[in-house]
Amino acid sequence: LTKVKRPLQRSPSVLAGGIAALAGLGVLNFAAALWGGDRAWLMSLDLAADLAVLAAGLALVVILALRSQAQSEALDASHERLAAIVDSAMDAIITVDEEQNIVLFNRAAEEVFRCRREQVLGAPLDRFLPARFRGAHRNHIEHFGRTGITSRKMGDVTTLAALRADGSEEFPIEASISQASEGGKRYFTVILRDITRRKEAERVLNSQREELRVLSAQVLEAREEEKTRIARELHDELGQMLTAAKMDLSALRARLPAGESADRAARIGELLDQTVGSMRRISADLRPLMLDDLGLADAAAWLVEEFAKRSGIAVHFERPEEFDPGAIDRALANTVYRALQESLTNIARHAGAKQAWVLLGARNGALHLEVEDDGRGISPADLAKAKSLGLKGMRERVAYLGGALEIERAARGGTRLRLQVPIRSRAAP
Ligand SMILES: Nc1ncnc2c1ncn2[C@@H]1O[C@H](COP(=O)(O)OP(=O)(O)O)[C@@H](O)[C@H]1O
Ligand SMILES: [Mg+2]
Question: CA 356 to CA 373: how far, in whole Å?
């Protein structure tokens, strides 16, 4: 922190001056002893020189003493400043020597580990580590010492754990380590932070996210079930009644003479036919009963064909591998079918495409669906639209079934959606 000046007594000019003065004085004293008796001027010169060198020597000693005091005061002040910085740091700071005994323990460390520094100075660092990590940790520090790297983050991938001083509690930390040599000895300094609160917040957030995901998937599933029920009701109940009404009407018409009443009965017949048609369409939209009857692959083929007819977009449908539709769980078939329906609707509504490709297959125990178009493509902003729930719902349902969904710009420039869900058999609980 402070640059220490070279001590005055070792500066070459002072040394040379001192030696020269002493040598001169020696010669002068020798001369005075030989011839000084009868030469008074020589004696007084010698005396004056002796006194001058003595005074200079005394002055030097005083200056040296003053300087070394000033220096040690400056050093003390800089040590104090450093100690204050270390103590006011928010993070715990612990320094250990080569034997991994604690030599520095700041105030934050006292708080984190819940002990006083007097109790731990000189003690091994081990007491702050869970027992199972002690050996490995010692080796890590030794290895770090050999690398010669000055500092690095500890535990890049895993969460590190530390132990309170009384051994009562393990807690997660984030830490970095550095090393420095002083007086030929190596010291390691660990700066660490208790991240219990952050980990807890993360855990709560994750579990809430998971709950929300399950909830939204269940809402979607419940909606699906409700739709199925209405579709069945429409198809079975209403369908039968309409059929019965039509049969009665034709019996009636057979008995009616030609005229206004017969014309009216004929119009009722037409209306009944139209009603049957709308009912079928509505119930098929609510839930394609053929998904239950035909299975996923044929229902998908039907959907693609209908879509191509209505939209005028050329769709290439591929089902390379045969899989047993009977074995596929209903929620899974539903999810994939709805995903295909939503993708096709999106192509018609947003893509402005001329062609589309649909691929359905089973591979490595997972069901795969790919839908691609040659339209304008999709951007991340599109996917984030707050009011657009089609793709978000799809993602939730796929995640709920343990699958994955990717939506990206295809090589051909349009949009490509790829979905895979692990196959659950219908028998599975
Ligand atoms: N095939 C596609 N081509 C281009 N843009 C698309 C395509 N599919 C979806 N998008 C964009 O992504 C947005 C989100 O789609 P989606 O979640 O299905 O909601 P919605 O269809 O109700 O808008 C759409 O509004 C559209 O901008
Ligand atoms: Mg949509």
Answer: 4
Residue with CA at minimum distance from ligand 1 atom 12: 382
List pLDDT tens digits, range 69-126: 998 998 888 889 988 999 999 999 999 999 999 999 999 999 999 999 999 999 999 8
pTM, two decimal places: 0.57
Element (DSSP H or E) covering residue 103: strand 102-105
Q: How many CA atoms lie within 13 A of 204 on its CB side?
A: 6
- HEC sequence for 247-260: HHHHHHHHHCCCCH
Name residue, tokens 């209306």: 271
* List of the chain residues with pLDDT < 50: 1-4, 428-429
* Enclosing H/E stretch for 182: strand 170-182
Cα separation values, 103 from 116, 125, 135, 189, 193, Å: 13, 10, 20, 10, 19
List pocket residues of ligand 1, CB cut-off 6 Å. Answer: 342, 346-347, 349-351, 373, 375-376, 378, 382, 385, 388-392, 415
> In which residue are the tokens 């323990």 written?
105
